[in-house]
């Protein structure tokens, strides 16, 4: 089993409910959530005008490969209603793979560690809370 850290974000609809639904879906897909950070409200970064986000980071245990985990997270986003209309646009749910064990991976579809996580306080604050 591998240890992963995932970032969750939502800025449409009942944002807190979408974060909870995403966690439920992760569990339903065999991903064991070990820890959840505080849920914080943040302004959008590097994006068109839109509402504030609720963001959190979770630590989980999984048997999925990084690529399979990406497929699962994107399936959950789609199931919850995410539509890719505008680059960095508003979304009901965004799930990013931040870290996967000590893996360093660069592929066409996935980069681990997440390439912009160190630049984003809405990721690093919650991550430091659960993994100081």
What is the gist of this entry?
The chain contains three helices and seven strands.
Describe the structure.
The protein is an alpha+beta fold and 132 residues long. The protein has one domain: Alpha-Beta Plaits. The strands form two sheets. Strands 1, 2, 3, 4 and 5 form a five-stranded antiparallel beta sheet that branches. The protein starts with a strand and ends with a helix.
- What is the level-2 CATH architecture name? 2-Layer Sandwich
Q: Give the helices and strands as they follow along the chain.
A: EHEEEHEEEH
* Structural class computed from helices and strand pairing: alpha+beta
**What is the CATH class?**
Alpha Beta
Helical fraction equals 25-40%
What is the secondary structure topology, with strand pairs?
Elements lengths: L1 E9 L4 H14 L3 E5 L3 E3 L10 E10 L3 H14 L14 E7 L4 E2 L4 E2 L8 H10 L2
Antiparallel strand pairs: 1-4, 1-5, 2-4, 3-4, 6-7
